[in-house]
């Protein structure tokens, strides 16, 4: 069996597109906050499906919803009404406090659609985004993404996008004018290094957008569904977006995205946007189950409590972590800025049974599933402290 799995890894390398730099690890199974490789080794998962596994792996509520829906109907485009979709749309809109939703398949697709919608509704073309921001790799989403290595091979991208420093209200205010359709921001910049919005920043941005007729798009693809200790991270900031983009953990790991539309947007014109798989009953069933778990368990307040404790422990340990400069985060979205490259740290953690993420070249990112047992979370945290103390080569 081991030889077969090893051979399949080589086969995957042979036929994969080449865009992914894979780690020397073959994952074959997941359970809760653990992943298992082809040799039977168990790892504490702080990758969390790059943010899509907030409820962990093989959550029983997600499995039950998928099994039940698969027996009835998997594919059903929005040409037809569907009861599973209706229930999910109503529950999601109620949870977000927004009247309408367009369902799609990913975070990039949600952000791409949001930009289209903003241009359509405002009849303007300008977009203001943030330095260090990441919104996806499709052409519109890529245009609002800051990282130049992602952007430059595909230029020219869409025109009219301005990037301003994050958390600097004066710079944003200077960029928003009568040509601006929307401002798009993350509540916590994930890929850009785990930089949370400072107190009052998003409220000031919201006021500027209202005053100047621009829409406020919040990208909560990574921060949604309990990750920061709130169902949606912007709840802690006291703002109300015009468009809210969701994906990743929206359906417990099943591919799905959503564009929530506020009162300033309203209903869209017929045929102005579309998606073949968007709103399929299978994803909607998983989404409804995931939302119910978030709303009817203590996972979200628990994430806030545990996240505060983890941040406190890591900050207290900074003097003994030779490789670490700063600790940032909200809830169970943790970033540790390093004095050197993150790649050796990721390798050293993997060797000790902890899987983690980068956020750029010099930030270690931890996204453990919200279902992680406290003992396992603290094992992961103490392992990180040990590795950063020892300065892996």
Instruction: Count the E strands.
Output: 17
Largest sheet: 7 strands, mixed
| Domain module count | 2
Task: Indicate the low-confidence ranges by residue numbers.
Answer: none
Supply the CATH superfamily name of the largest domain: Type I PLP-dependent aspartate aminotransferase-like (Major domain)
- The assigned CATH architecture of the largest domain is 3-Layer(aba) Sandwich
**Spatial strand arrangement across the major sheet:** 4-12-11-10-7-5-6
Computed Rg: 21 Å
Class derived from helix and strand content: alpha/beta
Note the quaternary state here: single chain
- Count of discrete alpha- or pi-helical segments spanning 4 or more residues: 13
Shape: globular
Which tags fit this structure?
393 residues; alpha/beta; Aspartate Aminotransferase, domain 1; Aspartate Aminotransferase, domain 2; 2 domains; 7-stranded mixed beta sheet; 4-stranded mixed beta sheet; 13 helices; 17 strands; 19% strand; globular
What's this, in brief?
By secondary structure, this protein is α/β, with parallel strands linked by helices.
List the topology elements.
Elements: H1 2-15, E1 27-31, E2 34-37, E3 42-45, H2 48-51, H3 60-72, H4 83-96, E4 100-104, H5 107-122, E5 126-130, H6 139-144, H7 148-151, E6 161-164, H8 169-175, E7 180-186, E8 188-189, E9 195-196, H9 201-212, E10 215-219, E11 243-246, E12 257-261, H10 281-296, H11 299-316, E13 324-330, E14 333-338, H12 343-351, E15 354-355, E16 357-358, E17 363-366, H13 374-390
Parallel strand pairs: 3-15, 5-6, 5-7, 7-10, 10-11
Antiparallel strand pairs: 1-2, 2-3, 4-12, 8-9, 11-12, 13-14, 14-17, 16-17
């Amino acid at each position: 069996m081991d030889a077969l799995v090893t051979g399949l890894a080589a086969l995957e390398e042979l036929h994969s597109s080449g865009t992914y730099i894979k780690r020397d690890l073959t994952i074959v199974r997941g359970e809760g906050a653990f992943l298992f490789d082809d040799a039977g080794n168990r790892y504490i998962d702080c990758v969390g499906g790059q943010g899509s596994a907030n409820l962990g792996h093989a959550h029983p509520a997600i499995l039950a919803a998928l099994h039940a829906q698969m027996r009835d109907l998997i594919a059903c485009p929005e040409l037809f009404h569907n009861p599973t979709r209706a229930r999910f749309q109503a529950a999601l809109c109620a949870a977000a406090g927004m009247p309408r939703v367009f369902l799609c398949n990913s975070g990039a697709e949600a952000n791409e659609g949001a930009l289209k919608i903003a241009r359509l509704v405002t009849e303007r073309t300008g977009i203001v985004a943030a330095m260090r921001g990441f919104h996806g790799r499709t052409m519109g989403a890529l245009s609002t993404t800051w990282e130049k290595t992602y952007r430059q091979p595909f230029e020219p991208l869409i025109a009219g996008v301005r990037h301003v420093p994050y958390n600097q209200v004066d710079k944003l205010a200077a960029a928003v004018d009568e040509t601006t359709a929307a401002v798009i921001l993350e509540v916590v910049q994930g890929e850009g290094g785990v930089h949370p919005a400072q107190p009052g920043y998003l409220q000031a941005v919201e006021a500027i957008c209202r005053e100047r007729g621009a829409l406020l798009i919040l990208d909560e693809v990574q921060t949604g569904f309990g990750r920061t200790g709130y169902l949606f991270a912007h709840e802690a900031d006291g703002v109300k977006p015009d468009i809210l983009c969701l994906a990743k953990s929206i359906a417990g790991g099943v591919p799905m995205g959503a564009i929530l539309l506020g009162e300033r947007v309203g209903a869209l014109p017929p045929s102005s946007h579309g998606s073949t798989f968007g709103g399929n009953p299978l994803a909607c069933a998983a989404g409804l189950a995931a939302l119910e778990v978030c709303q009817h368990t203590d996972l979200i307040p628990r994430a806030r409590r545990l996240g505060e404790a983890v941040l406190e422990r890591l900050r207290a340990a900074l003097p003994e972590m030779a490789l670490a400069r700063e600790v940032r985060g909200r809830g169970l979205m943790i970033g540790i800025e390093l004095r050197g490259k993150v790649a050796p740290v990721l390798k050293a953690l993997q060797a000790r049974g902890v899987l983690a993420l980068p956020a750029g070249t010099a930030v270690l990112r931890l996204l453990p599933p919200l279902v992680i047992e406290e003992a396992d979370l603290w094992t992961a945290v103490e392992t990180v402290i040990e590795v950063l103390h020892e300065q892996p080569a």
